[in-house]
Amino acid sequence: MPTTHLVQNGFPVRRPTPAPTSPETGGELASRGGWLLLVWMFVVGFSQIVQFRYFGRVYLTDGLMLATVAMALVSHRRIPMPPRLGVVVLLCGLWLGSQVVTDLVRHTPSADIARGWGKIGFTLVGLLAIASVSRDSIAPSMALLCGLMASKIVMAFAMPDETVRIESWKWGYGLPVTFFVIAGISLIPRRSVLVWAGLAAPFLLSAVSLYHNFKSLFGITFLVGVLNVISHVYRARRLRPVTLLAAGVIVAAAYFAATAAYSTLALDGTLGGIAQDSMRRREASSLGFLLSGRSESLISTRAIAESPILGHGSWARDPEYVTRYIEILRARGVRQDTAALVRWGTIPTHSHLLGAWVEAGLLGALFWAYCLALTVRAAAQVTLSGMKGSVVVGFLMILLSWDILFSPYGAERRFYDAAYLVIAVIMLQRLRTRADV
To answer: How far is CA 111 from CA 86, 314, 320, 341, 361, in A?
Structure first.
C-alpha cells in the first residue's frame, strides 16, 4: 500500500494512505457500476437519431441529457466538477443571460427567441449532464461520442438527405469513420508492432478526405498525424516552451505544404469536378484560400463592430447586412447563389465565436474565446505528451478549435462540443497530475 512520509517531533514517520484512483482507467467510474453508465451515455448519444421540429430542431438526446442532470441532482444534490469546467459552465450561463437581455432589448420574435435560448440552454444542460457522470474519467464522454457517431453513420445510410447522397463522405459518414479509426489507433501500445500502422493511419485518412473534397477534415487529420509523429520522436513528460514552439513551426510548415498540394490537385481535376469548380471560383476571386470558404466573416465582423457589447438578437435578421454582404462578394469577384441568403435574411456567420458575438454580444464571444484557449492548449500539450488516448483527444481538440473559428453553431453540435470541452478539462487536469509526479 502506498505511504506518505511525514515529520513529527523531529522524526520521520510513515503513514499509509489509500491508493489513488487512476484517472486513465476511470477506477472510480468502474467502482460505481461504470459499464451500465457507459451504455447509458452511448444510448443518450445514439438517440439523436430521433428528432422533433419545435421552433427549430429538438432531439431525444436533449431530453435524456436533462434526465441525466435530474438524476444526478436527486442522488447527490450537486454536480462536482473541476475548476476549469466550472468556469466553462459559468461563462455559458453568462452567454445565456446576455442572449436574454439582447433579445429583450432588440424585441426579437418569439420563434427566434425559442431557438436562441434553447440552443444555449441545451448546451448548458449538456455540459452539466456529462460533468455529472464524468468525475475524473473521459470514458462517459467517449461513450456519448461513440453513440453520436454511430447514429450519424446509420442516418447517412438509412435516411440520407440530398447533400449526403451527393457527397456521402463529406456530409455523411466521413467524420464518424475517421473518429472510430483514430480512437482505435489510440489504444495501440507504444511498444506494439502495430505502432507504425498507428502513425500512418491519420495520413491515410487525410488522403481519403482530400480525395472526397472534405478540406477541413483533411487538414485536421493531417495535423493530428504530424503531432502524433512528433510525440513519438520527443517523449517527455514536461513539455518546455521551446518544444511547443518547434512543434508549432513544423505543424505550420506541414499544413501549408498540404494545402498547396490540395490546390494543385483540385485545379487539375484529380479530386473531381466539384473540387475543381470550387477551386476555380476561389482563384477567380480576391478572397484567398481561407476567406473564400468562410467569406461570411467579412460581414459578421462589421455587424460586431457596429454593436460590440449588445448583440443583434437570436437568429439575428437584418436584410441590410445581407445586402451589404452580397455587394462585398460581387466586388471581390465571387460567384455565389444568394437566393437562400435573401430568403432567410439572417446576418451571415460561419463561426461559433463570431455567431455568438453577433447574436448575444460580447459575453457570447467570451464563452467561445475561453473554450478556444482551452482546446488549443489541450490539443498541443495532450497530443505531444504521448499519454494514453492522446491521439484521439488531439483529434477532437483540433476539430473543436476549427469549429469554434470556422463552423456555425447549432443543432447536434451542442452534444459534440459539450463532450469535447469536458474531455479537454479532464485531460489537462490529468497532464498536470503527471507533471507533479
So the answer is: 31, 9, 21, 19, 20
For residues 430 and 387, the answer to whether their CB atoms sit within 8 Å is: yes
Per DSSP, 4 falls in state: E
pLDDT tens digits, residue range 185-211?
988 887 777 888 888 999 999 989 988
Query: How many residues does this entry show for the chain?
Result: 437
Distance between CA atoms of 141 and 45, rounded to whole angstroms?
Answer: 10
Instruction: Determine phi and psi for 11, rounding to 5 degrees.
Output: -120, 140
- pLDDT tens per residue across span 86-111: 999 999 999 999 999 999 999 999 99
Residue 310 carries which DSSP code?
B
**Which one, of 348, 333, 219, lies nearest residue 295 by Cα?**
348
Write the DSSP symbol of residue 361.
B
Q: Which of 11-15, 228-232, 272-276, 299-303 has the lowest mean pLDDT?
A: 11-15
Q: Whole-number mean pLDDT of the chain?
A: 84
Please report, for residues 12, 80, 122, 366, the alpha-carbon distance to residue 359 in angstroms, rounded to integers and kept in the order given.
Answer: 61, 31, 17, 13
Q: Report d(CA 302, CA 433) in Å as an integer.
A: 44
Instruction: Give the pLDDT band of residue 283 (cuts 50, 70, 90).
Output: low
Q: Is 149 exposed, middle or buried (0-12, 13-18, 19+ CB in 10 A)?
A: buried
Return the C-alpha cell found at 65.
Answer: 441529457
pTM of the model: 0.86
Tell me the sheet residues that pair with 3.
Answer: 16
Where do the structural domains in the chain lie, given as residue ranges? 31-285+348-436
Q: How far apart are the first and last CA of the chain?
A: 17
